[in-house]
Every structure is written in structure tokens, then in C-alpha cells.
């Protein structure tokens, strides 16, 4: 039985195959992230995924430090992912942004630091800068210059591994083909679920030794600011429910197992202690080739995160097929 709990990245570091996602819509209090992260570490998660723009780094950092202090885990066994927000992509802002996140977290280094999105907005501390008409103000640094600044953060010991998020094939190739490239991205973190299984992007990344990390694997948090409220609910998909009943597992466990068997690192998100625990209990069963085929057939290239406010950005990543 494939009970692989870690994947070796192209730089030699190991990433736990299940991460705990800490994003929550604005209507939820930030303190929820602290409590949920504590529970996650207690029940066995060793990969915590957060971001500056979530506004809860300090809360997540407190949870991590408490669980290190009480001996639940050790820093060398914990894998923390942070993200560079799109108003800090000009090279001189990259390291200060990373250092600010480390101060918020009160950690000395990150295990993984990724460019949150290839879409850049007006540099500065306003995360969503808008003009007098309420339109987002875009900016256009060469992403290769941003990447070089992130490489320097790795050389400085502030982060062990570096990667990207929400990049399409063309945007990844820009970095891979950059003259003088020092480090390849170790991962591309993208939306990934049974309705958007990212097969083509997955195959491309695999061919380049880049790990795909999937968010929204259980569907989305259905944040009204981002998500069409009429969109399908992953965990209510009849095929998923039927396979789950066959294995005496939850639909969420089957959805996670599906992507693990495809070689994807899965981010699972919940603030419910029971579900947080259930979502990591996926190492005691295997889906059959028939199960996998049925689940793969559900793909319809449907995105929850359509990022419509950004669709006019010259670097909008979702206009390409993959």
C-alpha cells in the first residue's frame, strides 16, 4: 500500500503530502486560525500553509510556537509555507515582505516561500489598491526579476525552498528559461479538485520536476467575495459519495486520497476539529484503478476561483488552457 507521507522536492527538501490550509473568509474571526492550527498539529499535520494576505500570520505563528513549546512537534519536523503577495513583487520589496511575515510568525525561516500569483498590483501595503473608479491598479514587474529576489532570500537562509502559485505553463517556462537561473521552482500551488483535476498542468510540472500543490481540493470555502454561490459542491458529488460509501470513508477522505495517488500535495482546510482529524486519516486505504478512472471522468475544467476582477490583467493566468 502506498503510504507515502512526504515527497522529495527538486532541491532535496521533503514536503509532507498533506498540508493544513489556514485561509478563511473575512466573516470568520482571525482567532479561529490559531485554534484550528493547534488542533491540526495535535492530530498529526506537519505542513501548515498560510499567506500574508490572509491576515492571520500572527495567529498561526502563535499556534505553531505553542505546539513547539509543549513538545507536540519539533521545528525540523514542521513544514511552513508562506506567500509573497502581489503588491510586493518589485525586487526591493521581496525580502522586506518575507522578513515581515517571519516577524509576524516569530519564526526564523520558512520552509517554502511562493509567489502567491503572477498578477502584480501597485506596489505598497494596500493589498487591493484601487483607483477612483474602484478598479484594481495593476503593475508589471518582470516576474523573472521577482524570482531573482526570492532566490537571494533562499541564499540568505530566510527560506529553504522557493516556488510559485497560480502560474500557468507559459509563466513557469518564463522562469525555467531565464538566463542564469539559480533555483527552479519546487512547486506550483493551484486550484485542484475533481471538477478541475489539472491533468495537463500536472503532467507539465511533473516533466520539469515541479510538484503540484492543490488548494480547494474539498471544494472552496464558498467565500461570497470570490465564489459563485450556485457552483457545484464537491463533497456532494454522487460519484464521490458512492466511492466513499464503498470504502467506508468520508467523501473528503476520498477526494484527498484521489489527489495523493495522482502525486499531488493536498491542502485540506477546515475549522471543525472532527473534520480536521478525519481529513488526515487517509493513509489506511487505497482507491482502485476503477475508482480513479471514475473520479478522473468528473473533470470539467471548472474553477471556483475565477478571479474575475483580474481578468483584464496582462498576466491573467487562467486565459491559457493550462
UniProtKB/TrEMBL annotation:
Keywords: Acetylation, Eye lens protein
PROSITE patterns recorded: ALDOKETO_REDUCTASE_1 (PS00798), ALDOKETO_REDUCTASE_2 (PS00062), ALDOKETO_REDUCTASE_3 (PS00063)
Domain NADP-dependent oxidoreductase, first and last residues per copy: 18-299
SUPFAM superfamilies found in the cross-reference section: NAD(P)-linked oxidoreductase
GO terms for MF: oxidoreductase activity; structural constituent of eye lens
Site (Lowers pKa of active site Tyr): 83
Residues forming the catalytic site: 54
Positions with a binding annotation for substrate: 116
Keyword Acetylation listed: yes
InterPro entries to which the protein is assigned, alphabetical: AKR, AKR1C, Aldo/ket_reductase_CS, NAD(P)_OxRdtase_dom_sf, NADP_OxRdtase_dom
Similarity comment: family membership: Belongs to the aldo/keto reductase family.
Official protein name in the record: Rho crystallin
